[in-house]
Amino acid sequence: MNQLDEQTYRFFECDDSTVKTQLGRQPWFPTSPLSYRGYFPSSVNGKEGFDMSNPNFTEESRLSESHLHEVTPFPTESQLPGFKQFMKEYYLLMFDVLSALMRGVALGLKLPENYFVDRFVFDEALATLRLNYYPSSDTADMSPVEIGEDGVPLQCETHTDGSVMTILYAPKRGLQIFDNEWLDVPSEPHTFVINTGRCLQRWTNDVLKAAKHRVRFVDERRISIPFFFEPQFGTKVACPEQLLTQGEQPKYPPILYGDYIVESNKTFKEYSASSSTKTNGE
């Protein structure tokens, strides 16, 4: 995990600012060909971010599919030696970890063990690895992005993730989850936080609820790294019959994951030019 910290800080605090800006995406970098992956500045929602796609995606898949298949624009090896290879390996590791967790979820729901993972074909999966960077006020003009309903200044708005499941590395304090009240999530070195997303809530007919969370405003240099577990575009998200009682109807109509996530992303600042939308991912 020390190397994960090091690689992430190297990217965001690189002396050559063009390392980040040349990877910027629209609409914040109007001349960029990127629209879904790459870098976004702190002016978007109070934190800098860098989104990475499936390392198996190619320009051919990008052209033949949707913008969701956009290839990650990495820094060159001369700019950040080892960064690209490390992030690819970390992506693969997180995909394997969440695949194992989803087998447990299936068994807990009394479904076949591979019910979910059979619908996550790695070569086509839309899963997202994101690096988040929160600078301190010593180096940037930082202020809360929102004031919570309870009056708490926030560094990331209250939200639920649109993904199936999220695994988050957040080595410093700030994250809170809601369970009848706002609770601080302990920040322990080399640990992960795992939460369910709205897609899994829909998939299980509300049996598993999406976890509502937020980040308190902390004037401290910090990073957080979520991995959003997502299947391929054509995966059908529909409640398994085994989760319905006799005569019960699903609460949600079937939908392809790609169509679902396109609609879900419209509510997130990172994917919209509108400043009135919410953010996605601690």
The major pleated sheet works out as:
6 strands, antiparallel
- What is the molecular shape? globular
Uncertain residue segments? 273-280
Strand order of the largest sheet: 1-2-3-11-6-9
Taking the alpha carbons of the first and last residues, their distance comes to 18 Å
Which percent bin holds the helix content? Answer: 10-25%
Q: Mind explaining what this structure looks like?
A:
The protein is of the alpha+beta class and 282 residues long. Helix content is 22%, strand content 20%. It contains six helices and 13 strands. The strands form three sheets. It has a six-stranded antiparallel beta sheet with strand order 1-2-3-11-6-9. A hairpin with a 7-residue loop joins strand 1 and strand 2. The protein is globular. The C terminus is likely disordered.
Q: What is the secondary structure topology, with strand pairs?
A:
Blueprint: H1 2-12, H2 18-21, E1 38-40, E2 48-52, H3 59-64, H4 83-108, E3 128-134, E4 146-147, E5 153-159, E6 165-169, E7 175-178, E8 182-184, E9 193-196, H5 198-203, E10 213-216, E11 222-229, E12 236-237, E13 255-256, H6 257-265
Antiparallel strand pairs: 1-2, 2-3, 3-11, 4-5, 5-10, 6-9, 6-11, 7-8, 7-10, 12-13
Characterize this entry briefly.
The protein has 282 residues and is α+β, with helices and mostly antiparallel strands. It is 22% helix and 20% strand. The protein has a 6-stranded antiparallel beta sheet with strand order 1-2-3-11-6-9.
